[in-house]
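Journal club prep, notes for RB
We'll compare a predicted complex against what the paper describes. Inputs for the 5'-deoxyadenosine case:
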Amino acid sequence: MKLHGNMREPDILSWLLERNASRLSELYSTADETRKKNVGEEVHLRGLIEISNFCSENCLYCGIRNENKAVVRYRMDENEILDSARVATGFGYGTVVLQAGEDAGIDAHWLADVVKKLKSGFDLAVTLSMGERHLDDLALWREAGADRYLLRFETSDLRLFNHIHATNCARHPRLEKLQQIKALGYETGSGVLVGVPGQTHESLARDICTFRELDLDMVGIGPFVPHPGTPLAAEFARQRSDSGFVANSEEMVYKVLALTRILCPQANIPSTTALATINSQAGRQNGLNRGANVIMPNVTPGSYRRLYEIYPAKASSTETAGQTNKAVLDMLNSISRPRGKGKGFRAGATEADRD
Ligand code: 5AD
């Protein structure tokens, strides 16, 4: 069966449905070789700062959705964010990722100022993950020096997208937003959930082709993890295991990860926290051996990180930044992969290109 960067959707679909262990190990080793050849052995570390869990949206899968009244809400102030960035640089990370719910309380000018301070005070790349913000805000932040923007499109299937976001959009809003983000000159990241109820293998094959069509710089892939405070947890519990829909299993995540590496050889691909959540023992390292080349260790202060519960039992949610850092470095040592130097821009781009 075909296994190369120009594979078409039907071949990708057959790989998603593949169950033969020796064929799957061929898939994983091809992805691993493709990773080695295109982005090398280095694993880039990005310090994740979860700056606010306020959210105006009601995504049916997400624990910090607006209607989840059980969530205690917080928003970090500027000094707390700069302190977390100091922790990240202290660990030698080359990037901080500022992530939040869709929080109108994050004033665009305020965040632009924080970005400027991060860029002038530290030698860091700054990634933002603030949801579907207005073009003017995205432009302002880019102007302020933000290097990258993450916005997962979650699924390319518009019907499923509308269902899991309680929307009724005629066109895919995030695919449109990603075009704006790219046009502003951000390194652009996206990704999907694997195994959300109602997801077909055909649509997942389309998602993977969409990563290639968008020529993404970063692609994040993680399993759907049901959160009891959300409507999709009940829908997940009702879905029969023989439904024919995509499983939210570790193996399915590895297949998607490996196929993504083969189709997007130069992309930065994290071994995600959600993967580490469903296999706390080996999820992260298995991801790195099946196509991934990035880890995003959490550096959010402990009092807040427990509250950023997009799904339950999130890996590292009860650790300190120091403990997470040590666990990640020990794991890299154990698989003989060096940590990345510099800011870890997309392969092929030089740091000078980005300034
Ligand atoms: N399970 C797994 N991933 C989730 N996300 C949100 N809720 C869940 C969940 N229940 C992911 C989404 C979002 C990213 C920040 O977290 O894909 O884009």
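Talking point for the session: The pocket of 5'-deoxyadenosine is lined by residues 61-62, 152, 154, 193, 222, 224-225, 227, 274, 310-311 (CB under 6 Å).
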